Amino acid sequence: MVSSSHVCRMWLLWLAWPSRSAAQESVWIFRYFVERMDCKVGTGEDNLWNDLAAYLQPQAASLERLIVLSSTLEDVLMPFGIVDPTVALGCPLGTSAALQELASMCVQLFNERCIQRGLRLLHLSKLFMLFQFNDFGAWFSFSRWRTDMQRIASASQELHQVAKSAASIGAVDVIDPSFKQPDWRIGLVTYCNYNNSATNLTAQSRSSKGAYAKRHGYKLLHIEDPFVTQAHPWMNKLIAIQRNLQDYDWLFWVDCDLFFMNPEKTVDALIHAAFSRTPEASLLIAEDGMMLNSGSFLLRNNAWGKDFLARTVDLLSAPMPQSFQHMPWHEQAPLMYLGLVPSVLEGLSSNEMLTPGYDLHVVLLRQRALNSYPQELVQKTQHALVPPALGNERQQFSAFTGGP
Ligand SMILES: *[C@@H]1O[C@H](CO)[C@@H](O)[C@H](O)[C@H]1NC(C)=O
Ligand SMILES: *[C@@H]1O[C@H](CO)[C@@H](O)[C@H](O)[C@H]1NC(C)=O
Description:
The chain is of the alpha/beta class.
């Protein structure tokens, strides 16, 4: 029985395919991949993706096109008005292509009004594209979305250059780097879970962070045992923050492999700088040449901060494929998604200056203030996707070691 239905299916497939030469058999697999990239494999929203693919055929920029794309993306990124990536993750490449096109329309129509916003639309577009990088990698450009990493990278690089020459990447400057406000209860939290016979990273982290915390009177929570053994380290990272936030006004998350390079500079100064932008500041974080980087960030103990954290944990806990659980960016993916949606789609049809695209509680700090990379690492990775401008981000407050 089994074999006869198998034969029958094979026969149908042969009929559907015009050429039968043995040399083309590998094409079968290829076609299956392309159909998956194209989102033609019964995601439940096939009509949506078919319509979108048709709409994304090259066309001149117009306000109408911008508005149609923006409202389509609202449906995709916030089905029924709820910020939930389920639909978008059903077709990450289609979502990515639509975001890319929206960024392009916005910049073409609004020029400098949309430089910041255009960059953030591209960041989100990259996030969705990278969601399937392990599955499809270099084959993206064979899909009907006609997109690939190179295309996004060069578009972002152009915008990044323009944004830099316009003096601002939307980040606040730290005017007084040794500012202190003794009333603020500030905690440093990290989670180190490395094999101590293979690396000294845990001991080095404890020593560097300990010395810095002691100097400034911050409490250090150097967590070395998992809360949840069967979960990935990044889940333990989020749980470490969640369990301790209520005891502080601000928690400063620092990855185990981040080091304080300049002990004079204070955490208070970062908060002070963010408050100069808005009293609502609740998540202070920096971007690198690629996108948001969650290697270090400050989270405020308030209703927004707690809710944001809880939603991030939810998004990492949801089963695949509707979660960011197995994405190589881990907690960075839900942080970006929740930080940018819905704000990245707001105000596009008004005549006002567009915000950079983040939720108003998110304040960007410059990379050199919060999470700069050592020059050697920047040089090593410069060839790939990273705008050369990154090389200027020196004089670090803390630095990424690129550890195991
Ligand atoms: C830890 O590292 C050592 C040395 O590299 C290795 O022999 C050992 O198997 C590792 N232990 C675990 C639990 O991975
Ligand atoms: C760890 O530190 C000790 C002494 O501080 C040193 O002897 C050892 O080689 C270091 N191990 C690694 C893996 O770096």
